[in-house]
Write a structure and sequence with these properties.
Number of helices: 20
Subcellular location: Membrane
InterPro entries: Beta-lactam/transpept, Beta-lactam/transpept-like, Beta-lactam_class-D_AS, PBP_dimer, PBP_dimer_sf, PCN-bd_Tpept
EC number: 3.5.2.6
Organism: Promicromonospora aerolata
Main location: membrane
CATH superfamily of the largest domain: DD-peptidase/beta-lactamase superfamily
Number of domains: 3
Shape: elongated
Distance between the termini: 174 Å
Number of strands: 25
Strand content: 25-35%
CATH architecture of the largest domain: 3-Layer(aba) Sandwich
Radius of gyration: 42 Å
């Protein structure tokens, strides 16, 4: 039986075409629900502000590495190499870290229709080309923004060209820097006489490019009078120098009678290079005080913070160093833009040189020469003579002898002043009520806490006794007489009396390195007893003791000065509590030293007012520093010898020679 036919099969369901429409509908509903702000979710990133990019560019330019920031290059040239070439000479002149670049302004952003943008940065450049001057200029850098990248904000780029470095600088051009050295200022007297000025010299040395150089050292040593050790040292230096080296041996003043310059020039291989140097009137004149000039050391260059360059001539010691800035002046500087293919450059910046200004000092050349002549024989001992004009405090001479070996013993050498300090002790005693007629014990010895003090060998017996007038004790410098008062005069009183005379007090305006000694405010027992006669911990320089003599002469506390100040720099008159009456009594006591005491040898000195000798033992007591102070007319002077017999026998004849010139 045939199968029974069922109902016909249902046709397949048609595809659902309404789903996309549903999604769109949902999105529309969501958008309508969120409102108009929903467009932000699909917006391109905004253009970033250009100020940060401008600051990064400025920092890279200041560091000399412009290629470290995004640049739009117009050529294949390396920006860093271009920078180095353009600024090579300027960087050498001012220092690698000296130039600065800052952003002065950035123009408002101009946006393009395609998402790009542009702006312009103005950069401010500063090059400190001199101590008080800088080359300042502005350049312009075009900034471009290329638009977003992969949905992220892009980076600003600076359009690179050499005009970003210097205004108007064309490709291939660079800066040239020329320095003009100033003339160094002179050191003159307050009356205008030149003490140190530019002096013609010759740098004499051996040139290894000349025939005969290999035998020149020995011949030159003979001509110049060098010892064998010095000559051998020169020969070794020449041998070790480069094959084209010039080895300087000595600098000789033009027409210097001490050296046979012509004979030196006749030696094969020897050359004399002419020059000018700031030198004193002769080789040894006040050398320790005035100082020297030479090429700046590495330390001086570093400490100058760019104002001094390697090879510059600067003061190395003494007044030349203390007043170097004034004497040195300011170099001139010319910055020019040098064309790529040679030819004349065009001016970019110029500073005129400023020559150094003179420094005026109180030295009297004739007095200084006389002092140096009196010390000429002390070639193995430190020595000094200082002379002050009491009425003004001006230092007329500050000579350090040849045995000081270039050290400024006159102003800086500190030693126990010995019995010259008894002027200060006498002032303290006068203030305690003692008078020149007060009787004091002047015994052969005095014992203080187990230490025995005695008078100098040869002390006159007629000046000894249990009741000797203070003026006689002072005139003959009786140690025991002064020490006998150590319980009545405190260490503080000694200190104060010394300060009244200018000892231990910093000078108000000396104008150079100086020390005026030190008198402790506290000392007890034997130390205090020793202080009464200028030993123990009491120290003084020759300048300090000359100040003591000047104060006694002037009738008031004197503050010595050497360099003339001007305008607002001028110091006020020194203040001190030394009275005219006290000074008059001290002058009277010092007069007794000449008339009846240890300075009788000065009786024939014209205008002599008074003096005081001093002997200060040191070491094991067998050696002594020796001193003499003197006042004659309007002159106060001190002689110091590092070692001698007595102040009267060693320093006395030197003082006589200095005061009389014979």
């Amino acid at each position: 039986m045939p199968p029974t036919a069922g109902p016909p099969a249902a046709p397949p369901a048609p595809p659902r075409k309404g789903r996309p429409a549903l999604i769109v509908g949902i999105v529309v509903v969501v958008l309508l629900a969120l409102g108009a702000g929903a467009w932000f979710l699909f917006r391109e990133p905004p253009v970033p502000e250009p100020e940060a990019a401008a600051a990064e560019l400025a920092a890279a330019l200041e560091a000399g590495t412009p290629a470290e920031v995004p640049l739009a290059l117009e050529t294949s040239a390396s920006p860093d190499e271009q920078y180095a070439r353009v600024f090579e000479q300027l960087v050498a002149a001012v220092g690698e870290d000296a130039g600065t670049v800052t952003v002065k302004s950035v123009t408002p952003v101009e946006e393009g229709a395609d998402g790009t943008a542009t702006a312009t940065a103005t950069l401010a450049w500063t090059w400190p080309v001199a101590t008080e001057a800088a080359w300042e200029y502005e350049t312009v850098a075009k900034l471009t923004y290329p638009g977003p990248v992969d949905g992220e904000a892009g980076a600003w780029e600076a359009t690179w060209n050499t005009g970003v470095l210097v205004p108007g600088l064309e490709p291939g051009e660079r800066l040239a820097v020329d320095r003009t050295e100033p003339a160094r200022g002179e050191i003159v007297t307050t009356s205008g006489e030149t003490i140190v000025g530019m002096t013609p010299v010759h740098h004499v040395g051996i040139d290894k490019t000349r025939p005969g150089w290999d035998t020149a050292a020995s011949q030159l040593g003979d001509v110049l009078g060098f010892d064998q050790e010095t000559t051998d040292g020169i020969a070794a230096q020449v041998d070790s120098a480069g094959e084209k080296a010039f080895v300087e041996v000595i600098t000789i003043r033009e027409n210097d009678p001490e050296y046979d310059f012509d004979a030196a020039m006749a030696i094969d291989g020897v050359v004399g290079i002419p020059d000018e140097l700031p030198l004193a009137r002769d080789r040894d004149f006040a050398r320790a005080l005035l100082g020297t000039v030479g090429e700046a050391t590495a330390e001086i260059v570093e400490e100058s913070e760019g104002t001094i360059k390697a090879g510059d001539m600067v003061g190395l010691s003494g007044l030349q160093a203390a007043h170097d800035e004034q004497l040195r002046g300011v170099p001139g500087l010319a910055v020019t833009i040098e064309p790529a293919e040679g030819g004349e450059g065009r001016e970019a910046f110029t500073i005129d040189k400023k020559d150094g200004e003179p420094v005026a000092v109180t030295l009297d050349p004739a007095t200084q020469v006389r002092a140096e002549a009196a010390l000429a024989g002390f070639d193995s001992l430190a020595s000094a003579i200082v002379a002050i004009k009491p009425s003004t405090g001006a230092v007329l001479a500050a000579a350090s002898g040849p045995g000081s070996e270039g050290y400024n013993t006159a102003a800086l050498g500190q030693y126990p002043p010995g019995s010259t300090f008894k002027i200060a002790t006498a002032l303290a005693m006068l203030r305690s009520g003692i008078t020149p007629e007060t009787p004091l014990p002047c015994t052969a010895t005095i014992n203080i806490e187990g230490r025995e003090f005695q008078n100098v060998p040869g002390y006159p017996e007629p000046a000894m006794g249990d009741a000797v007038p203070f003026r006689t004790v002072f005139a003959n410098s009786c140690n025991t007489g002064f020490i006998s008062q150590h319980e009545k005069i405190s260490q503080q009183q000694l200190h104060d009396a010394a300060a009244s005379l200018g000892l231990g007090v910093e000078p108000a305006a000396f104008g150079a390195a100086a020390a005026l000694g030190d008198v402790p405010t506290e000392a007890a027992g034997t130390e205090h007893a020793a202080s009464m006669i200028g030993q123990g911990q009491v120290l003084a320089t020759p300048l300090a003791m000359a100040t003591v003599a000047a104060s006694v002469s002037a009738g008031h506390t004197v503050s010595p000065w050497l360099v003339e100040a001007s305008g607002e720099e001028a110091a006020e008159a020194p203040s001190g509590d030394l009275t005219a009456d006290e000074a008059a009594t001290l002058r009277d006591l010092m007069g007794g030293v000449v008339s009846e005491g240890s300075a009788k040898a000065l009786q024939d000195v014209p205008g002599i007012v008074g003096a005081k000798t001093g002997t200060a033992q040191f070491g094991d007591g067998s050696k002594a520093h020796v001193w003499m102070l003197a006042i004659a007319n309007d002159l106060a002077a001190v002689v110091f010898i590092e070692e001698g017999e007595l102040g009267s026998t060693t320093a006395g004849p030197v003082m006589h020679e200095f005061l009389t010139g014979s």
